[in-house]
Amino acid sequence: MGEKGVYLSDWSCFVISVDTGEVLDYHVLSKECRKCTMKRSQCQTDEEFEAWQIEHLASNECDINFNGSSPAMEAEGAIVVWSRSVELHKIRYKWMVSDGDSKAFNTVENIYGDDCKVEKLDCVGHVQKRMGKHLLNLKARTKGKLADGKPIGGRGRLTESRIKRLQKYYGLAIRQNTLTKANLTEREVDVVVYTMKKNIIAILHHSVQSQDAAKQHRFCPVGEDSWCKWQQDCATGTNTYEAGDCLPEVFFELLKPTFITLSETKLLQRCVRGATQNRNECINGLVWARCPKHKHHGAKVIRCAVASTVCHFHSGAASRARIMQRLVIPAGEYTQKASEEKDKRRLRKSDLQTSAKEKKRRQGEQMRRTRREDALREADGDTYEPGGF
């Protein structure tokens, strides 16, 4: 549990159903034991500590259940929860929604044997961010001037707001063509992937100027409901499209390799189901609220925090009353009312945040902030670059 790049002594692993959103299983790994640490500092010799450790391990009170490196904890956690799925629930976990940051999928791909291989799905949110990352890296790598004698950045060029817009379009090209059926045929997957590819290529052509408008927008969706203003104008007879909002022609060949890379068949096949790791991010946030990452917590505290998180994730604050009842600590009237009110506020906030109007407002505000920052950077010029001054 923590950020990558730092030493981790504890790690919590959850299995969350893509269909129901419920936590099916969880496991906490720990590389440290408070009792062992304290006893080692008290013992005068290694022999004395080893003798005590034998008794300590025999009593099953040691918190250490993992001895590998910190980066390997995620993969080990996946092995533990996948290997006991049949015993716990009489089911096999067929898919793993992954962000590609660890070897967790590789360790469980064949855990059920050849007759039931685990399939990897990519989080469409993480895949969408790859477009922004690729374009930012491209902008950082491209020094000097392009073929038209101008730099890659600046007004009307590849600014951060433009990159965010392309990233958003790329995400929509994937999200708007997903299927949620349990068993997809190979034909259905091929059709969806083809449509995704066509829409991704449409973004490139739509965003770069061309002398022939019909050729520029030939891949864009047609009709009055199209996101392409040019196609809307063709269908409705209006004149709302502004050609000056496109990138210069020199950017077509510059951006083409990035769009080809991010429209590879295997990548898009893993996005067909439109799976995300939003629930995973949510439950991690609940754990961190109970055990902040900037403070050290023992394994027992983390296990309690994880168990409490699962209860809250399933039933909200009202789950505390049932826990207190199991502990023979009956919850009072005020405790129950406070829990119910807290859940109501959470649901109201959730409904507001997921509404189309609120999403549009947040996206608009984010784009305005990015444009303001682009304008300020252009006015100030280059003021910071690692090792550049």
From TrEMBL:
Compositionally biased region (Basic and acidic residues): 363-380
Transmembrane region(s): none
Region ranges (Disordered): 337-389
InterPro entries registered for this protein in UniProt: Mutator_transp_dom (IPR049012)
Domain of life: Eukaryota
Alphabetical list of Pfam families matching this protein: Mutator
Domain Mutator-like transposase: 13-228
Signal peptide: none
Annotated protein name in UniProt: Mutator-like transposase domain-containing protein
Organism: Pocillopora meandrina
Lineage: Eukaryota, Metazoa, Cnidaria, Anthozoa, Hexacorallia
